[in-house]
Amino acid sequence: MTDDLLGRHRSVLPDWLALYYEEPIEITHGEGRHVWDSAGNRYLDFFGGILTTMTAHALPEVTKAVAEQAGRIIHSSTLYLDRQMVELAERVAQLSGIPDARVFFTTSGTEANDTALLLATTYRRGNSVLAMRNSYHGRSFSAVGVTGNRGWSPTSLSPLQTLYVHGGVRTRGPYASLGDEDFIAACVDDLKDLLGHTRPPAALIAEPIQGVGGFTSPPDGLYAAFREVLNAHGILWISDEVQTGWGRTGDHFWGWQAHARNGPPDIVTFAKGIGNGMSIGGVIARAEIMNCLDANSISTFGGTQVTMAAGLANLTYLLEHDLQGNARRVGGMLLERLRAVAAQVPAVREVRGRGLMIGVELTKPGTDEADPRAASAVLEAARRGGLLIGKGGGHNTSALRIAPPLSLNVAEAEEGAAILEHALRSAP
Asked: In Å, how far are 39, 210, 310, 340 from 235, measured between CA atoms?
């Protein structure tokens, strides 16, 4: 059955639509932190549908909210008042840390970043944008145009002029040998120098922890230091929290809070985890920025009743069960466990991250050269052992991505670490 489904997939879907594993699997159902495939195999899920299953698979509170709302009405569009959308927007605005915040819901992180770029360039009346090297912001035309990762950028055409700055990757690049303070100072000097050669851009868009790029991040405080320079030029700061939001990093509810010395971002984008699998994205911005558009706009599917019901139930569960605190505690233990394993595996260059957002970078032993073959081998070995993980990386890097649901318990973390240890030791 799986082979037939794979053949059908290949006959009607694009060649560039990637599938994991030499023998791709069909996931049929899940519960808690586990999923099952069509062959009946059970897996501990350490990737959560690309950081999307934030709380748990088949969480009763969410499935009940979705079923009850679907039994009333599924959809009406933003042309009509939507109680669930207003209630979720109120909660998100309050949690955002942005004063006088307005919230616009979309269907994905890509669309959220599109909207943020539209707002920033309209508000600032310019089409140039600053972005980070090694970044990823989505698959749309404008999002690809600000993505600093060649592996995920299929065209150089763009509606925007994008200028890339240093700082998103701590342990590679021209400033890697510097201490944290000097690293930040060098990146700030680079930003100042870049701005001396161009007209002021509309905004800087940045992920606090780069997701697709392999869970890399700068030292805490980099974007706060950038903010001082941006403010001097009137440049907006967009924090792409599609993967880092909702407490996944453990230490903070939003990734930008590790860089909060000079206040919150002007714009925050979010998606993935808030819907726990339902299609929700969104943008948070100060009212003067959100309201700068002078043409009509609606959203057909952004903020639809059934997805908003899911988001409300999911966010309530997250807060009432302190899943951010759980991510900090269990994620910290898992990080240290994996670092102990890595010390004995020559192919592991670095284990990094915070909370339940952990990257394991692989290189050819004794070098800094990426080893994508090893990453694929570890991914396959982990699956055979009953563990699902992800991959990532940018320029000459290969990383494993570990991001389980935030309700992961200690026993499951230990189980996953043991499977991954065996996979790392057994891979060629």
From this structure: 53, 21, 35, 42
What DSSP designation does 210 have?
A: B
Q: Tell me if 79 sits within 8 A of 339, measured CB to CB.
A: no
- Per residue in 296-339, pLDDT (tens digit) is 999 999 999 999 999 999 999 999 999 999 999 999 999 999 99
Kind of pairing between the strands at 281-286 and 267-270: antiparallel
Burial call 253-290: b when 16+ CB within 10 Å, e when fewer: bbbbbbbbeeebbbbbbbbbbbbbbbbbbbbbbbeebb
Q: What is the pLDDT of residue 233?
A: 97
DSSP state of 200: P
| pLDDT tens per residue across span 244-270 | 999 999 999 999 999 999 999 999 999
> CA 341 to CA 395: how far, in whole Å?
25
pLDDT at position 3, please?
67
CB 278 within 8 A of CB 66: yes
Q: What is the mean pLDDT of residues 283-292?
A: 98
Q: Where are the beta strands (DSSP E) in 62-138?
A: 101-106, 128-132
